[in-house]
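Final paragraph of the annual report: two paired records, presented back to back.
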Amino acid sequence: MSLFKLRTWTLRSRIAALCVAVGVLFTGLGVFAVFTAAENDRHLDDVLNRASPMRAAGETLNTALVDQETGIRGYAITGRQVNLEPYRTGRADEQRLIGEIESLLKPTDVAIRADLELVRQRAGAWHRKVAEPVLRAIDTGGPAAGRAKIEAGSTDEFGAVRVAIEKMQGDIQTLRAEEAVAARNSSQTMVAIQIAAAVIVILAGASLLLLLDRLVSRPVVELAEQVREVADGDYQRRIESSGSPELAGLAGDVDGMRRKIASELAEVREARTQIEWVNEQLKVQAEELTRSNRDLEQFAYVASHDLQEPLRKVASFCQLLQRRYAGQLDERADQYIAFAVDGAQRMQRLINDLLAFSRIGRLTGGFTDVDLDRVLSDVKAQFERDDDAEAGEITWSDLPTVEGEEPLLSTLFVNLVGNSLKFRRPDVPPVIRITATRRDEDWLITVRDNGIGIEAEFADKVFVIFQRLHARDAYEGTGIGLAIVKKIVEYHGGRIWLDLDVEDGTSVNFTLPVLPGAPEPESEPEPSGETRKEVTA
């Protein structure tokens, strides 16, 4: 594999390759360790469960044969059966021990099996040639015959048995030693396997640390240093990484973000320059607006004092001419005088409405808690004192207490109720209903009447100053009333609009903020008889 292809490996691929290599090595060591452990168990089993029991059985077999020989001699000396008991016990032990040794042998134990067979043959020969003849002699001729038989005989047969046992024991000891050495070698091999596994773990860990250091740690530190340089203001510093492909990709993304930030920063600087220029222009315009406001205030002062006085004189003298000379001049002169009186009065109303419109939000006495029920009661009282008004009915539900300027809120309802009374339908008594509903953090207040209504196409025009929808001779007024209402509502933080879904009459909706800390209403209140007001308006 070429070095270039290796460099293109991702960090995950390299770690995976390292893990696979370590896994293959550990698998090989594991398989080898399994076979070695099995071999070690086999050797230990041969030492503990075969060689040692066979050696012990061989020693016991030798003792059993010696007991047999001793029993024969004792029986020959005394002739008593009790002295023959060691012979009988030794004979039974001999058969049992030979069978036990034979059961422990494997097909590979050829030498020991041959030695055991030799022991069996020589022991049989001793029984046939020595032990059994002595027993027969004692049984027929008494102990003296048995002693004579023993003295006449030879010890070579029993010596041959002992030599065969010693040879078998030597071969068993040789087997035991060989298996012990093999077990020791297997143990050493297991230790070597464990050392090799530890070395592999250490080398794998060192390789992993080196890999992480070269491909992650140092590149991350370098990348962080580059990012800090950019954060310190060097937005032209290119960000790159020599680490793993993942970090190189991350560095590319960060550098792309740097380029985007640098581009947007240039745009922001340009926009800041433009904003500073605009601010300068706004500052100039604000100063001009301040001067204009001062001029407007001066004009309001002049209009309320200097213009009102000559206008009152003109209106007074025109009215005086109308009262004193009415009918004394011709009909055209009376008409001209009437025009002059009407014009002066309309001029006074227009000036007063303009002054009221300009003072909203400028001349303030501060917000207080205003009970709208009490405001509506005062508004009703104003219309009750109007002798020229026609009969009408005003009803309202329990209205809330809001924060605002009471004179302005009173003006608001006077204008709305006044419009409802003024724009009534012919021969239909005006009915005005005022309701309030809680909508989240606002009160939605509705003033609805059964008058002539407003066409949908004029819904946005009715709140424009001096906007009239009817001829002056049809309905009197200056066209400022709803503009004043809109300005009062907006000054109190609300908004106003017409509900165009009503079929008859006009429905004006506006909002006022709820008092801070006011509880949520349990249910919308229903109109009650106590809040039903009738007014002659």
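The closing record of the year follows.
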Amino acid sequence: MPPVGNYRNTKCGEEIRRFIPSERIKDRLIDRISFASDAGFYRLIPEAVVFPENEEEIRRLFSWCRIRKIPIVFRAGGTSLSGQSVTSGILCDISRHWKSCQPETEGQYVRVQPGITGATVNARMRPFGRKIGPDPSSISSAMMGGILSNNASGMCCGVQHNSYHTTRSIRFVLPDGKSYSTEQREDYSRFFTESENLAQTLVKLRSRILANAALSEKIRQKYRQKNTVGYALNAFLDYEHPLDIFARLLIGGEGTLAFISEAVMETIPEHPFKATSLLFFPDIRSACAAIEPLNAAGAAMAELMDRASLRAVENKAGMPESMKNLGPDAAALLIEFQAETEEELKNQLQIWNEKSTVLTMLEGGIFTRNAAAREQLWKIRKGLFPAVGAVRKSGTSVILEDLCFPLPLLGTAVQELQTLFRKHRYENAIIFGHARDGNLHFVITQSFDHPEEISRYEAFIDELVPMVLRLGGSLKAEHGTGRNMAPFVETEWGAEAYAIMKELKAAADPDNILNPGVILNTDSRAHLKDLKPLPQVEEEVDRCIECGFCEPLCPSRELSSSPRRRIVIRRAIREFEQSGNLRAAESLLQDQPYEVMDTCAVDGLCATACPVDINTGDLVKRLRRENSSVLENKVALELARHFAQTEKLVGTALRLGNAAGSFGKNVSSALRKFSKALPLLPEKMPSSPIRNQRTKNTVSPDYLYFPSCINRMMGSHSSGKGNVMDSFLNICEKTGIRLLEMKSEGLCCSQIFSSKGFSDARDFMAEKLLGEVWKASDEGRIPVICDVSSCTYTLRNLRPALSLSSQKKFDQLRFTDMVEVLHDRILPLLPPVPKVENLHLHPVCSLQKMGAAHKLLAVGKHFAEQVSEPLAGGCCGMAGDRGFLFPELTASSIKASGNPIAYKATIYSCTATCEMALANHYGTEAASVLLLIEKALEG
């Protein structure tokens, strides 16, 4: 661990507080450590993390850094794979405030800021049937700043629709504070007068390139294929005016020349007709022979996989059985055709069928248009990276690099790569890639904890670089140059081109403060320095590859920590302990409760995006369990044993709180000044009506109805009309679904105890509930339905908390969710209703984890022409009672989700506590989706 300086606030942080509010500066040790890593295998600890919200603050940061010669690096999603977004200076995080996204010209264009994810932009464009051109596999977490600054492409866009070719205008801020926009005509003349040295340097460099026929042709040739090594010298050939040239140099510039504050992107159609197939070949050359016919037929995607790739996923559920019997040299292509019309798709497939007759295939050629089947096929491709990451040795990094080769030499390149893997002992290495573009990715696992391991990696790279260049390839195709290939930019481009790049950097950033050492680096061993340590900590932590895919779904990502940052903190504690720096370890341990444990919603959505299936919520539950006192565990167990009385007390308290209204909120707020363990009551609360269980006998019930304790304690609708349980029973009765309501007083799914780490109370309640459900369901004959999705999810995953004998009973039980019944059984029976223009829905996190969020949306579409939901998805942060204890978690999560509610409309969901959180945040009503259905059935 390098020196980390102060443990509380740094000198840099204190100085920056003079011109940026303190709440947007993080410089405690725990903050600097948690932000020190991106998705790559390098680590630098920043002096401070700053969250600027406008260009003026960017200018002030630039000025401060120039005076003090301190580097500044911009980070958006932090999914960079080669260390482009780490620094020992000022880390400028733009993920919180630069989120504007405005479709223009009926969706033909979209104006974006750098802090919004590509997936969110595409969600905004979906009503227009359009999307942005770049389609990196990290699009759900990669933000537009990184997508532009790394010239992202992806599986489908090739060269034609990458960031460079689909950017129409750019607004940027130079290190000297001057800003320009290629949309403003007056900025073209202003650029010459106010940034004269930079403008004249660009003119001179362009003239030098045009006068050098060999260099000009080399530039044209290198950009006919994917290439992100060095600066985009093609800008000097594609544009004449220095402002246009410089703006395009920023694409792929990795934040080393200026800050991109806004861009207008040209969008492309999201084709509605698609056909997908998986083809197997006897060897890699046979697979590569299919690429030319695929391109001729107009294939949108052609993903190449070597035998090692297929072996890594062949045992996954849903994989073709024949994969296990492929020969040692076999390969595969996952191909997809896309079209605007059915006729166009048929023509593409016909051309392919005619051209593929001369190919040598083992199996394949059957295309599916079924969305579920297509998604299953793409799981093969998407599962490659995590398959290697999941089985790697603890303490090793996962290195994902990308290369590009001329198509005729692609097969040769794969074979030579495989030879290098064997020579340098990378036994688990795999190769896959976008074959249509000659773009190969390879994944290796590498330890950096011993000098001999670093030497092994050095020897591998020293042979890889000349091999790629000998075959006419690019050392980087779409991931940006980064620290890993910066020492080899001159090797690929030659002395003249490299000299031009150095002059460009010196003219744009004379003080060398913008991301120094990235793209251009004179240190031939820079790629072997500042390597990220990965000490062994605990099972969940050790599997993490720090990719950041989890972060967009985390409720606390803008409040305290994200899953990635929680894991980075755990690793740092162990690293400090091992190195003997106990003072630093103690500093992290002091701040850990709030940053890591208290503000985690433990909703588990992070696992749905994690390539290696880590549920950081489970890690936090265990930490809570390990940190809870004997007394706290005893109290929790007593509450579980007397849960019927607990339920009545809570219900009474909620009724009193609801009656008190704002007075109750004020009283609870005053009490919280003495103890943060006391809940903060919101103004809008369910009325928690007293309700008696229905006693009507049900013959041959379709379901056993288990009302959740949430709805038993706070089950009223926000409108105050009735309660959730009666609404659900009435709806089922009117639609002919027979329910048997079980006696549920004193029973709970156990989530309230497990989320807090009280394992004894959880196990007691799980056993008690299982026994009652077993009897009430006629020993599993009747499926069990629950009216809160988080409780359904908990019930389905109750097995680990049960004894062996109870597990055998559990295995015979069937649990279903209320939303699933609404969609599968009740929706087809609903009468037509006049549709409203727009309906706001909030699919709760457990519904998303169960893969049933689309069913809630389908129900909403029965009542509205358009259904809107949170753009960024995720959890509202209520997490049962967590929002009562830490209301700032709910406020931060809902704000970050980007729910586009423009007017005081009712928000519909399927969990009372989440509805309450939404209502209080937006100052509007939130209610169960049952109200819509009940009203429709009433006619």
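Residues 823-938 form a domain with the Rossmann fold fold (CATH 3.40.50). This concludes the annual technical report; the extension proposal builds directly on these records.
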